[in-house]
């Protein structure tokens, strides 16, 4: 099919870390990029400037608090207006922090479910028509701990378990025009919000069959595979964890 404009991707939480790497890989593959961010404005603007130096007018940044449905609606409207098309939605934005059972607050519950489950659902709903028009796809970033819970992170694991079902449910709801898949990363980047000791790192990697931490590029390449090379794959979650989930 001949395209009058490059394919367009929206990546949430794309200002830094895995999201930024996903954006860079998609841009290199020819996508125009919408970089969503919540607070990391400086990182987002720097990334957009870099992408636009490589290919002029090919990337923009938009701020939104995805815990608020009004912000989601405004983001979706801006996405649809910019290039008049959307081919790929990557629901990458996610909060991650411990919630020891017995001390969980309603604010923690609402926050973790908002970023990991509520936002991906309502963003997919708001953008579904544009994705149908392009026979596009949605890729959700889940987690290996969605199926095997991580100690002291019960609320996060519950939210990511919902994210797995979200992927399957939307794949059925949006077929046949839109494919919906997920990726469940293992040890890719160490959390920013927690003090991770060298002992913890070495212990985790010792329980990973490939004996090393993955790279953000491993996730980005899997995104490209699902977006470009897997036209008959939908409703699936690919685990990218070096074999960690075999041992948990």
Number of domains: 1
Oligomer: single chain
- Supply the CATH architecture: 3-Layer(aba) Sandwich
CATH fold-level topology: Rossmann fold
- List the total number of helices: 7
Would you report the number of β strands?
Answer: 7
What's the Cα radius of gyration? 17 Å
Spans with pLDDT under 50 lasting ≥5 residues?
Answer: none
CATH class: Alpha Beta
Averaging pLDDT over every residue, what do you get?
94
Give a topology summary.
Blueprint: E1 8-11, H1 17-28, E2 32-37, H2 41-54, E3 59-63, H3 69-83, E4 88-91, H4 106-133, E5 137-141, H5 154-174, E6 179-185, H6 198-206, H7 216-228, E7 237-240
Parallel strand pairs: 1-2, 1-4, 2-3, 4-5, 5-6, 6-7
Helix pairs in contact: 1-7, 3-4, 4-5
